[in-house]
Amino acid sequence: MVVTILIWLIEAYVVVLLLRAVLSWFPIHGDSPLAQLQRGLVAATEPVLAPVRRVLPPLQIGGTGIDLSMIVVVILLEVIARII
């Protein structure tokens, strides 16, 4: 029972991370209803992503930096869920 709940929470957090990633692809204005959702997603995910970002800075390709922290966190969470 506890294991099932833990796995569900991990999978739910992965969905939150993916929603944040998808919303980051679109310009969202401060007065948009999605802006509040985006702020909530950032508040929920940044405490986990920021430490990974400090260890693994964005990959510089040309003039663009690719943030790999999201990918690393999702993979780690999926591995933890499978181990549980």
From TrEMBL:
The keyword Transmembrane applies. The chain crosses the membrane at residues 7-28, 61-81. Keywords: Membrane, Transmembrane, Transmembrane helix. InterPro entries: CCB3/YggT. It comes from the Bacteria. This is YggT family protein. It comes from Aciditerrimonas ferrireducens.
